Amino acid sequence: MNKPIASIPPLTQRVSRYILDQALAGGYENGRHMTEADLAGRLGISRTPVRAALRFLHERDVLAHAPNRGYTLVAGREALALVRRELPEDEEKTLYYRLLRDRLSGKLPTRVNELELAQGYGVARALLRTVLTTLLQDGVLRGRHYQRWEFTETLDSVESERESYRFRLTVECAALREPGFRVDHERLLACRERQRALLAQASRHSWMDFFEANAQFHELLAAASGNRFILDAVRQQNRLRRMSDLSDYPLVNIDLLHTSCREHLQILEAVEDNDLEGAAAHMHSHLSRASDLVERRAMGVLGD
């Protein structure tokens, strides 16, 4: 008889969610051998909760087990999705997004106090500290000082985001028309492979991968312009967009994120063919379409 989900420790649930999300996103293929050491290393935890998660997923027929050989992924997509729906959402992820959205909406000030946050959100200090540390690692917060944290600068209004896109339409299209434009071919190939991998495998759960790959793409072309001021401007925009993008990605229809990857590949292909005017035209269309997400969020239809 299967254990009730409520009796499974939170850390074991977290590991189980990670395995299921990776499998659903295509990161783990059917037949993959799962080891305690690999998973513990990836998640930065001890082997004990990993061992418990592997046993739980074996009980749910997601993994097969052979003595002296360990666990192997055997479940199909429908079975994976069914077990994933059994598990409650990750408390850390839920709080992470609440803090992002409350900061963007102005409910949270730039500087926050750890104790006041824990009381205001009704969460344990240990959980809150874990989430704040993650936000720090993701570049959303600045360092802690006597339980005080500071959010980094962001695009904190619809109008500032509109201005950002108008600025990027000017700067990033101009980058492709710079007389000294020259792209590093190896970096272009690496960027293209990353976009293709996201298009082939990524899911809604790959939000950080989407953000990092998107920033890499735009900074690659800015660097290729040979104009240091253009590169500085694009890097600044990526820093400013981090909070709003990380907040938006889990709400965006996955097809829109895949469309963005295809547009990136189209621009890279034009650059590789030395059709820089064509690349600039594609970039203008790409940024114009992306700016529509701002309007969709303003109307409350971002995930439609």
Features:
single chain; mainly alpha; Arc Repressor Mutant, subunit A; Four Helix Bundle (Hemerythrin (Met), subunit A); three-stranded antiparallel sheet; 7% strand; globular
Order of helices and strands: HEHHEEHHEHHEEHHHHHH
- Gyration radius over CA: 22 Å
Count of DSSP strands: 6
Q: What about the largest sheet?
A: 3 strands, antiparallel
Instruction: Bin the helical content.
Output: 55-70%
The CATH class assignment of the largest domain is Mainly Alpha
CA-based shape? globular
Specify the CATH homologous superfamily of the largest domain. GntR ligand-binding domain-like
Number of domains: 3
Report on the structure:
This protein has 304 residues and is mainly α. It folds into 3 domains: 5-86, Arc Repressor Mutant, subunit A (Orthogonal Bundle); 91-151, Arc Repressor Mutant, subunit A (Orthogonal Bundle), CATH 1.10.10; 158-298, Four Helix Bundle (Hemerythrin (Met), subunit A) (Up-down Bundle). The protein has 13 helices and 6 strands. It has helices spanning 10-25, 36-43, 47-59, 77-86, 91-104, 114-121, 125-137, 158-175, 185-201, 207-224, 228-248, 254-272, 276-298; strands at 33-34, 63-66, 70-73, 111-113, 141-145, 148-151. The strands form 2 sheets. It has a 3-stranded antiparallel sheet. A 3-stranded antiparallel sheet has the order 4-6-5. Helix 9 packs antiparallel against helix 12. The longest helix is centred in the C-terminal third of the chain and has 23 residues, at 276-298. The radius of gyration is 22 Å and the shape is globular. The two termini are 40 Å apart. The model has no long low-confidence stretch (mean pLDDT 86).
